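Hey,

The postdoc asked me to send both predictions to you directly instead of through the lab channel. I've kept everything plain text so nothing gets mangled by the mail client. Protein one:
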Amino acid sequence: MKKKKDVLLMILATVVAVLAMSVNVWAAQKNPLAKMPTKMKVTLGCSIGNVTNYSTPVYYNRENIEISAVSSNPKVMMVFSRVSGSDGGAKRNAFYQVTGIKEGTAKVNVTVKVNGKTYKKTCTYTFVKYANPFKTLKIGKKNLASYYAKEPEPSLYGVVSRLNGKLTYSLKAGYKVEKIEYSRFVNANNGSIKMYSIKKGQKLPKDFLALFIKLKNTKNNAYVSIRVDNN
């Protein structure tokens, strides 16, 4: 009987420990700014998703969320922030996005309130001058590298006809590719778009909307992204 009782106590202790771990994990994830970076180096003119912006976890509408994000130097960096809805408005999250104006350093001071509780965090952004990372950038037979001589997201509308074929490229010294994705309509009727991963040497579908190549400059550790719109 004592042995059976000891086994039950051990099981109970295990359950309590698991519950405690779950509570600790939940508590660790509760801070909406927990994953926000504190230091970033970005190339001017690049819209690099999770580098130039940060989104909190998603909350239900019954939870009150507020956000304030302020630039310490508006001449170097502008900041936009808001609370947006998702899933038809049933859920929402708070986010900020920064835009570099010129070379230099600026801090974004973020304050998020969730159900009356305040969280604060600061990230320092350093913006550096853009340089073309590609020797060649081809989709099919079309070499696009020259269009990226001065900026990372040039308008190709009316300049380049619709693109399709294999993605190939060669990089200049000091750059490495971190991620490549393209966007495509999932449902053209309602305008829903999905992102897909792709690798060098793979073929892009004829109906892709835009190609996004995220790189890192290994000399100065600055992120850079290239956007190719398929007109």
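Protein two:
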Amino acid sequence: MSRIEFQDIVRQFVLMIPTANAALRGVPDRPRLDFEVWPDQDSDLYDFFPMAFVRPILLLELNKEPVDREVLIACFEFIEGLANNEDDYIQGALYFEIYEQFLSGRDVMAKALEFSLPVTRSSLIRMLIEDYPETLREFDLKI
């Protein structure tokens, strides 16, 4: 997956994720308007990720049985494109607004690791080992 640049995040989100437009329509007016004119000085990944991506799409899919493989593959390709961007702001938003959300349960983390592509998987494993070793032991995941 090639690197997604900051200015292209919302455009790539809409192009890559099958349910992106529906998720964006569910965002309250003010943030949605900011996302629609992305990027501008008010653009904030710490708002965009949870409101448009993580809660309405990613976590819903990770908690479903059976999962929609097509949607999760698209989600993790999007995440991988972001993970390939070394910008500190993007990396911080990924860590706090996406990766840490996988800590909500063993099954969620196991599915996240299963669908993760190399850079994302490496980041998740590093996060677990360095920042959440107790959770890693508790989850008893094969990494």
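Summary for protein two, as requested: The CA atoms of residues 43 and 121 lie 27 Å apart.

Thanks,
C.
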